[in-house]
Amino acid sequence: MKILNIFLSAFRALQRNKMRSFLTMLGIIIGVAAVIAMLAIGQGAEYSVKEQIAALGTNVLMVYPGAQQQAGVRSGAGSATTLTEDDALAISRECPAVQYISPGAFAGGQVIAGNLNWATSIQGVGSDYLEIRQWLIEYGDFFTDQDIKAAAKVCILGKTVADNLFPDASPVDQTIRIRNVPFKVAGVLTKKGQNAMGQDQDDVILAPYTTVIRRLSHFPNLRFILVSATSLKDIAAAQTQISELLRMRHKIQQYDADDFTIRNQTDLAATATATTQVLTILLASIASVSLLVGGIGIMNIMLVSVTERTREIGIRMSIGARARDILTQFLIEALVLSLLGGITGIIIGVVGSNVISSIAKWPTIITAFSIILSFGFSIAIGIFFGFYPARKAAMLNPIDALRYE
Amino acid sequence: MIHDLTLSSASTNGSLIQIEHLTKVYQLGEVDVHALRGVSVNVSKGEFVAIMGASGSGKSTFMNILGCLDKPTKGSYILEGIDVGKLSRDELAMIRNKKIGFVFQGFNLLSRTSALENVELPLFYGPTSNKVRKVKATEALERVGLGDRIHHYPNQLSGGQQQRVAIARSLVNDPSIILADEPTGNLDSRTSVEVMGIFQELNNNGITIILVTHEPDIAQFAKRHIVFRDGKIRADKVNSNPKIASEVIKEIPMIDDEEEAA
Fold first, then answer.
1. pLDDT tens figures, B47-66
2. Rg for chain B (alpha carbons), in Å?
3. Do B93 and A5 count as a contact with CB atoms less than 8 A apart?
4. Prediction pTM value
5. Domain chopping of chain A, boundaries
6. Mean pLDDT of B86-109
7. Do A320 and B169 touch (CB under 8 A)?
8. Does the structural domain B45-70+88-261 have CATH classification 3.30.200.20?
9. Residues of A with CB below 8 A from B93's CB?
10. What is the complex's ipTM, to 2 decimals?
11. Greatest C-alpha distance within chain A
């Protein structure tokens, strides 16, 4: 019997019981659609986490002063005050794998503008800070190298700060007071949102690091140096170069510990990605349970079908159908059920994912892999759960089957 | 009604069916049931044999073995030189497909499947192409006088017509023998004679027919009578003067409504 004919007669057989065939397929449809949607949501989450981390700048390195060691007692990171402006300049001069560099200082405090005030953190940064952070000015201007040299009292407001201090007017060219020091607002940053830790990155004021050190913190050394490598691949090289340079400059002996710490974002990215991948697998496994239940539904209906059609099987055997002809016939029927269910499920899964992402504003990503996976899975289920009933049909004794009432 | 047969006539020397010392024992729990106790019979090409006997005489078992649906416990069954007893399940299926045409009491057509598709069915299990299959099936239906009803479904056909579809199905693969198991059991007397007429015409054209029946009237249309009792052949005689269906039918009134009313 030719395979095309078998498929046609399988279609015909399923058409005779439309409702039943549809309900049987429904199990597979729901299963496949759920797997597709869950994978889409999981991969969407993975993608957006990666995006957020990339927005942070994955080729960014942070150099912190290290732990101070006094008579064997080690304080925490940053307790040493070893990082200087000269270090920063040396890094930008002597490390070829470094593209941008921004010295960093820090101050906290109450900020007053007119009759409004707001507590926020003031970051003292260099002129390349925005390049490193891949951040943009929404309106106004960033401060210049000249401002940095002169320790000018200019600042850039984060979006959150701008909204709180200047709810109605443009803050550009206005004056705000930080710890009673007047600053001119040069510009406002674009909205960056929360970082991977859930902190509001827009609740910040940027000012020249020289100004922060001299006018606000009165703490002469740098709190951090922000560095971006020339490319993602060069992170390791940049890290080594900085480390060697700083050890030399700080005159650290060969076996002594560093008095600084270099951190990069790749570890964080890897951890976050792994977490969302686990989430994706978890979701997909739960969804595939319903695919399994759908498969059992197919087996159930095929068993009923074999019993109902025992006489037909007898007739077919008496006119020359071999056991394997009967086996193929019922196997193909189960396969057609699961295939049709699988295709419908893929369509519903894709449409459903798009609906979810447009309603819940949740990114969903449908990959060819997830479609191929669920398609292959539904074929496998058709064959696996169709085999037992088909074999039962094929093993019938023709005489008994013919006499079956 | 019946066109010229284009049967590939095999060599006529020797018998079509050679059966020797055939026994069949069923095991029902711990009891052995001897359905056949040593049956030997030869059937030549072109014969029209009626197998008769009460229920339990072993004729159905004999028929199943003859039709390669069942295997004998002992003894040999040679069909056109092939020792059927030695064949596997699949080989038996092939013999049923190529050499045997079945006609059953209950017609055994596939419901919700047109007459044409029912007749095509045996060809599905062979190498026939889709085109040839359709042609052959249409021819077979024309041979039994249903050329105008090939797209009807079984539930749109009368019992006699359904049985004719079944006969067409048995014919379609040009079998060596047609096995008819109580083919008139579900039909009224006039239709029964009509069906017997078809068998007689097929037989006149050279097809070997073996008919199982318990109705002596029906057996009268066959040329040879084999009577079974208790698993053995009790009588095997030539019917020297078989009834001719085409003549008998003229004596049966067309419609029996008046009789029913009486």
1. 999 999 988 888 989 999 99
2. 18
3. no
4. 0.71
5. 3-52+270-403, 60-264
6. 92
7. no
8. no
9. 317, 320-323, 325
10. 0.88
11. 105
